[in-house]
TrEMBL record:
This is RNA 2',3'-cyclic phosphodiesterase. It catalyses: a 3'-end 2',3'-cyclophospho-ribonucleotide-RNA + H2O = a 3'-end 2'-phospho-ribonucleotide-RNA + H(+). A motif (HXTX 1) lies at residues 46-49. The active site is at residues 46, 131. The lineage of its organism: Bacteria, Thermotogati, Deinococcota, Deinococci, Deinococcales. Hydrolyzes RNA 2',3'-cyclic phosphodiester to an RNA 2'-phosphomonoester. One of its GO terms (molecular function) is RNA 2',3'-cyclic 3'-phosphodiesterase activity. Belongs to the 2H phosphoesterase superfamily. ThpR family.
Length: 201
């Protein structure tokens, strides 16, 4: 009897999702892009708190519990958008983003990363810089002039999401939602969907 092939590892991340009244004007700004930039869909925009590039599927439950434990005492975050920027800032950039600020956001990200490390799982080890990716460069493309935004929202939850790679770009599937100040903060299961139609945000 052949040994079953192991399940592929999961690409997961904790994040804040954006309300429509924030993602819509950001998507409108993408009209300034020229050349080989690939814009991020409005419904896929988010603020990454911690990224885990390779998680064994059987560890997913531990990460759901970690998210619930670390967000149960978190207050609603007053998130504000600032100006746009690039990664890297020098030379040929790969990513165009908008900066994000919120009191308590860096602390939440640090606590999640510490919790992940305590579970013996790896993150991407990149320093936390709160931002929303607007576009990724796929070839020669000019920079967009700097933009600033007088926008913000009250973030009352975070999510644990899965990144599924597609030829057209990554697709994000919500695995659990964690409400801030929600008592025991039990993670909410994702909305049931057809097997090949993951619940997107």
């Amino acid at each position: 009897m052949e040994t079953p092939a192991p399940e592929p590892s999961l690409r997961l991340f904790y994040a804040l999702t954006l309300p429509r009244d924030i993602s819509t004007p950001l998507a409108e700004t993408q009209s300034l892009l020229k050349g080989n930039w690939r814009a991020v869909r409005a419904d896929q925009m988010h603020v990454t708190l911690a990224y885990l590039p390779a998680v064994p599927p059987e560890r997913l439950g531990e990460l759901r519990k970690l998210g619930a434990d670390l967000t149960q005492n978190v207050s609603t975050l007053d998130v504000r958008l600032r100006g746009t920027g690039y990664f890297p800032n020098e030379g040929s950039p790969r990513v165009w983003f908008v900066k994000v600020e919120a009191e308590g956001l860096a602390e939440l990200a640090a606590n999640l990363r510490e919790g992940i490390a305590a579970l013996g799982l790896a993150t991407d080890e990149q320093p936390f810089k709160a931002h929303i990716t607007l576009a990724r460069k796929k070839g020669p493309a000019p920079r967009v002039p700097p933009k600033t935004f007088d926008l913000g929202w009250q973030a009352s939850s975070a999510v644990l999401a899965r990144s599924i790679l597609r030829k057209t770009g990554p697709l994000y599937q919500t695995e659990s939602t964690f409400r801030f100040r929600a008592g025991a903060a039990e993670p909410e299961p994702p909305t049931p969907d057809a097997p090949d139609q993951p619940a997107e945000f």
